[in-house]
Amino acid sequence: MPMDPNELIARLNECGIAYELFEHPAVLTVDEMMATCGDIGGTHTKNLFLRDGKKAHYLVTLRHDARIDLKALRSVLGARGGLSFASTEALREHLGVESGAVSPFAAMNSAPGAVKIFVQDRLLLEEHIDVHPLSNNLTLKIKPEDMMAALRADGRSSEIFALPDSDEV
């Protein structure tokens, strides 16, 4: 059974990780998030759950305003074969969340090593980032280093990546 937002919050508290939790209407897209929660103070993120031609899964977290070209991103991630968005079924199976609720924390619901986590380097420069805690009607404002620490405490490794100079991949 996948972890729910309350269980995630309990884990963050056990690790002594500071955060602010915001409740809001459910949002499915970055545009909806910006319209609903644009003023909570952190840098908003967008999260992509992808699959390559060899059926490896990738959870990619970027600044909300990063533009993506999946063909170019494939080489950045080291993906094999074509790169595409994973199915809704794979989202539920591997991350235990619905569309719109993806964040690095969702990888805590996956089997170890089943999902490769990638975080854009620019997010680590931000004071706070905004991510969903396994539900798209909640947002956590958290320091990026604290999010990474929570993932490590759960035994999850992540890779930091940079987009090309144009910040478009």
Order of helices and strands: HEHEEHEHEEEHE
Poorly predicted runs are: none
How much of the polypeptide forms β-strand, as a percent range? 15-25%
Number of strands: 8
CATH topology: YbaK protein
What is the name of the CATH architecture?
Alpha-Beta Complex
Give the CATH level 1 class.
Answer: Alpha Beta
User: C-alpha Rg, in Å?
Assistant: 15 Å
What is the terminal separation in angstroms? 35 Å
What count of structural domains? 1
State the shape: globular
**Average of pLDDT:** 92
Classification by helices and strands: alpha/beta
Largest sheet: 8 strands, mixed
Family: Belongs to the PRORSD1 family.
Pfam families: tRNA_edit
Domain YbaK/aminoacyl-tRNA synthetase-associated: 24-148
Organism: Methylobacterium radiodurans
Keywords, please?
169 residues, YbaK protein, eight-stranded mixed sheet, 25% strand, DNA-binding protein, DNA-binding
Q: What does this entry look like structurally?
A:
- The chain is α/β, with parallel strands linked by helices and 169 residues long.
- It has helices at residues 5-14, 30-37, 70-77, 88-95, 144-153, and strands spanning 20-23, 43-52, 57-63, 83-85, 115-120, 129-131, 138-142, 158-161.
- It has five helices and eight strands.
- Strands 1, 2, 3, 4, 5, 6, 7 and 8 form an eight-stranded mixed sheet that branches.
- The chain is globular, with a radius of gyration of 15 Å.
- It starts with a helix and ends in an 8-residue tail after the last strand.
